[in-house]
Design brief:
Layout (H helix, E strand, L loop, with lengths): L1 H22 L16 E7 L7 E8 L9 H6 L5 E6 L6 E6 L4 E10 L12 E3 L13 H4 E4 L3 E7 L1 E3 L5 E3 L3
Parallel strand pairs: 1-8
Antiparallel strand pairs: 1-4, 2-3, 2-5, 5-6, 5-7, 9-10
Length: about 170
Amino acid sequence: MKAKHLILGLAAVMTTPATAQADVLGTDRTACIGGGGGPAIRVNVMGLKDREGRLKLELYPANDEDFLKDDRDLLKEGKFFRRVWAETPSDGQVSLCIKAPRAGRYALLFTHDRDGRNKFDFWKDGAGFPSNRKLGRSRPKLEQAVIEVGNGVTVTNIRAQYLRGLGGFGPIKG
């Protein structure tokens, strides 16, 4: 009887982490898996235009001065900034993870770098924020990107948005 319980226990241990890891992408994925220690943000991405290129999350200080500021400037000024990348999976649900230095308020940006060039192409690439409000044609506002991060793993859903004619950025319909 003990051997049967040992085998069942080993099977559960061996399958649980592998399954969990397959669900979460990005260089910080272990922070979101099985109580990985947080504070971290798990982002469930919806509405991708296609499965090309790479996906990126960036975490900024939650203030107007630092939001979307060049990362080199933020780091030179001794301010927090974090970026994670992941290859776009060919199918299935898309979840990414990014670590935060501590619980608190941050600004979070998601981008879909469809051509993989690491430079946002207004005409091709997608973007999104935790608020999921339509981005339109103007520069994103801080309040669209703000997220409160707890001590564990904070989960949010972001709907990707792409240029849709004169109306600017919005989610793909259908």
